[in-house]
């Protein structure tokens, strides 16, 4: 796997109420990833970009919701979400604030 693919695999952190609870309680981090990304690619990308050790990766294909745009019906894009379980003692801080 080349360096360019690793840099493109993770699209963004997925910040929600559920992901915040998982991060505090279980040490899991949630990312939006490329739709064709594999678990091994996600694991390698997180380990190299954030300098942490990954225990496991679970992926979910999220179906886009059907929405209306004015009078015309439309659909949001399908996307892929990855739940990354970090090993004990490792943490990723997206806020970056000092306590």
Q: Could you characterize the architecture of this molecule?
A:
With 99 residues, the chain is α+β, with helices and mostly antiparallel strands. The protein has a single domain (3-86), classed as Alpha-Beta Plaits (2-Layer Sandwich), CATH 3.30.70.330. The chain has helices spanning 3-9, 17-26, 39-50; strands at residues 10-13, 28-33, 54-62, 66-69, 72-75, 79-86. It has a four-stranded antiparallel beta sheet with strand order 1-2-6-3. The chain has a two-stranded antiparallel sheet with strand order 4-5. It is globular. The mean pLDDT is 92.
Short description:
This protein has 99 residues and is α+β, with helices and mostly antiparallel strands. The chain is built from 3 helices and 6 strands. The N and C termini lie far apart (37 Å).
The fraction of residues assigned to DSSP E strands is 35-45%
**How is the biggest beta sheet arranged?**
4 strands, antiparallel
**Considering the protein shown, what is the CATH homologous superfamily?**
RRM (RNA recognition motif) domain
Number of helices: 3
- The quaternary organization reads as single chain
Indicate the CATH architecture: 2-Layer Sandwich
Helix content: 25-40%
Total number of beta strands: 6
């Amino acid at each position: 796997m080349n360096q360019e693919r690793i840099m493109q695999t993770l699209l963004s952190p997925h910040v929600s109420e559920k992901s915040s609870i998982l991060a505090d309680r279980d040490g899991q981090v949630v990312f939006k990833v490329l739709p064709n990304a594999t678990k091994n690619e996600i694991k390698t990308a997180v380990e190299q970009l954030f300098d942490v050790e990954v225990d496991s990766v679970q992926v979910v294909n999220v179906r886009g919701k059907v929405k209306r745009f004015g009078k015309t019906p439309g659909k949001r894009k399908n996307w892929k979400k990855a739940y990354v379980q970090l090993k004990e003692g490792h943490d990723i801080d997206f806020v970056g604030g000092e306590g």
